[in-house]
Amino acid sequence: MSDTNPEHTPDTAPEDAQPEAPEAAAASDAAPEGEPPIPSMTADAADAGVADPAQRIAELEAQVAEANDRTLRALAEAENVRRRAERDKQDATKYAITSFAREILSVGDNLRRALDSVDAEARKSSEVVETLMTGVEMTERELLSVLERSGIKRLDPLGQRFDSNAHEALFEVPDPSQPQGTVAQVIEAGYMLNDRLLRPAKVGVTKGGPKPEPVAAAAEDAAPAGGDGKDGNKAYEKGAGGAGGQVNEEL
Question: How many structural domains does the chain have?
Fold first, then answer.
């Protein structure tokens, strides 16, 4: 007979019954691959990457201020462009006929020369001459009327104070009875196109007379109490705009 006992257990356990090693236990506690990291593992790294909140707010405010400044500049530039375009449009409408108007002024000059070339005695002596001169006068009046409807106004500064903005002095006339710088003769009439000088009047001015009064004093003396000055005196009031607003005191 055999001495072996079927119920006898060996002194050593099989290999699969051995206790787990420490390395294996640590590996089993780690997060499986592909799972999100444990918050406690990334807390320190997150705190290190975040800037100071006050500094971040200051940076954002600076960016907002810069964006606002650029927006305001862009809006201002757009408004300036719009205004320039509107002004250019108005100027193109008001002064589009400038070149044509300068050319047509010679027609009025020739009509005036024709009228000045015939004196009153010659007109009375011949009915034909009188009729011809009457027709020339009517033609001149019609031309001036057409020009005025287009915004062109004739300037006849005879007896007025010389104004370098609207007059061109060709010569001086000795006349002690008139204030110095008074227009004594008009060689060629001037013209205004709306509020812009189209052509200056070519004139002769006096010299040797008394010095003209200051502009403000002359305007106050000429204007009646409680009303506006007449005969063009408003053009010489202090601060008056347009042609005639500035006076050249000395030639």
Answer: 2
